[in-house]
């Protein structure tokens, strides 16, 4: 689906004008906030925040659950003969896996 961009003037031209009833209601609300119905919104109190009903979200910083998930594997540097490395890489390419998966399989095979 293509993204359609229009100018503000085009958007305003397409917008339906407010009815007289809507304009009167908006003017009344602007004059008196008590006409706005907030009954469906409950109050956020420090007790409810402490109880975990609400979470205050700050800006920036590390987000919970973000980043790469730990695998438990540890990085190791090895010096391998070129023939062994070529063999491991060829097998990994053939299996469509990584060099680490192939090396682990060979090292743990008994």
Describe this structure as you would to a colleague.
The chain is mainly alpha-helical and 110 residues long. The chain has one domain. The chain has 5 helices and no strands. Helix 4 packs across helix 5. The longest helix is centred in the last third of the chain and has 14 residues. The chain is elongated, with a radius of gyration of 31 Å.
Helix/strand/pairing category: mainly alpha
The shape, in one word, is elongated
Q: What is the number of helices?
A: 5
Annotation, overall tally of beta strands? 0
What is the distance, rounded to the nearest whole angstrom, between the alpha carbons of the first and last residues? 54 Å
Helical content stands at: 40-55%
Overall pLDDT, averaged?
A: 86
Q: How large is the radius of gyration?
A: 31 Å
H/E series = HHHHH
Question: Beta-strand level of the residues, as a percent range?
Answer: under 5%
Main sheet?
A: none
Structural domain count: 1
Please, what is the oligomeric state? Answer: single chain
Uncertain segments of ≥5 residues (pLDDT<50)? none
What's the layout of helices and strands?
Blueprint: H1 8-14, H2 20-31, H3 46-50, H4 82-95, H5 99-108
Which terms summarize this structure?
110 residues; mainly alpha; elongated
What's this model, at a glance?
This protein is mainly α and 110 residues long. Helix content is 44%, strand content 0%. The two termini are 54 Å apart.
């Amino acid at each position: 689906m293509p993204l359609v961009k229009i100018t503000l003037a085009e958007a305003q031209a397409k917008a339906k004008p407010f009815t007289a009833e809507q304009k009167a209601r908006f003017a009344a609300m602007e004059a008196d906030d008590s006409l706005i119905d907030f009954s469906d919104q409950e109050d956020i109190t420090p007790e409810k925040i402490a109880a975990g009903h609400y979470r205050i979200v700050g800006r920036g910083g590390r987000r919970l659950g973000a980043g790469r998930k730990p695998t438990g594997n540890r990085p190791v540097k090895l010096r391998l003969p070129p023939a062994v490395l070529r063999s491991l890489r060829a097998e990994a390419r053939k299996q469509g896996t990584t060099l680490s998966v192939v090396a682990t399989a060979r090292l743990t095979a008994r």
